[in-house]
Structure formats: structure tokens, C-alpha cells
Amino acid sequence: KHRVVMTGAYQLPFGQKKRFGSNMNKWADGLLGGWELSAFATLQSGFPLQVSQSGGTLWNGTQRPNLVGDPNTSGSIYSRLNGYFNQNAFTRPAPDTFGSAARVLNIRGPGVKMLDASLLKNWRITERQSAQFRLEASNALNHPILSDPPTAYGASNFGVISGTKVGSRSVQLGFKYYF
Prior knowledge:
Layout: E1 3-11, H1 26-32, E2 35-44, E3 48-50, E4 52-53, E5 66-67, E6 90-91, E7 104-108, E8 112-124, E9 130-138, E10 145-146, E11 152-153, E12 164-166, E13 170-178
Parallel strand pairs: 4-11
Antiparallel strand pairs: 1-2, 2-8, 3-7, 5-6, 8-9, 9-13, 10-12
């Protein structure tokens, strides 16, 4: 329903030809100058949940369970890991009937709030040659980004969130030499 992606890059103002330390010697500039920060943030609401019937008995089509109550629950997402929605709001339909639950519930899965970031250090070696060190982190804040709960009524894990969409923080180092 909603998705915002923001990105930005910032060169720190330290070093030769910068706001602070413009008269630095070559060695101090090699240590303090040439740093950059960049980030990539993603904020996204979850997708609508689609309920189906595990072990349906229809010859043709997808069988859904009957909706007999309100599937909405309240509380934080962490308090609802074992019941993201009300599992008791559903019942098994009679054989060879479609079931009364809507194809898509008015409930959305967990959203995404993620920040990827990098720190770069640039060195000018000659007029045509330079080097760059990179430290990059995916999911830099290391927040769990929970997956959608299984939505097949009758399955043992129906409505239970037990995994993540994105793994934990991942860091990589890199070095580039431009010539």
C-alpha cells in the first residue's frame, strides 16, 4: 500500500580543498580527508494476506475456509508472533464448497523498515590514480524484518510468524584501485 525509498550521500568536510583542514599536509589529509557516508532507507507496509484451505476438496478452483468471526487482533507485532491474526475466526467448509472467507483479508503482513549504509575512504594517489576503501552494511541497524504468517487454514503453523524476510546485518569490506 505504501512504499518510501530514500537515499543520500554526504562527503565529510575534512581534508585538503574542504571546509575544515584545507591547509592539511599530505599525511594528515590521507588519514582525515576523503571520507563519505551514504545510506539507503526502505519503509514499506506489508502485503494483504490471502487465506486458503489446506487440503481443499474442490475439483476445480481454490477452496477457502469459512469466516465465522473477526480475524483482527491487537497489540504489537512481537506480542502476536504466535497468532498474527485470530485463527479461531475460521472453520473448515463443507466438502465441495468454496468457503465464505474473502480471497484477501483486510489484514496486512508485517512491513519493512530497513537501512543499508556505507562508509567510504578515498585517496588521491596521482592525477589519474586513486584508491577507495569501502565498508558496507545491509540491514545496518540489525532489526528483524518479520515474514508474513502462513495463511493455509488447517496447516499446523497457520497464522504463526516464525521467520524473517531479510537476514541479519551483513557487512562487507572492499578495496578499489582506479587507474
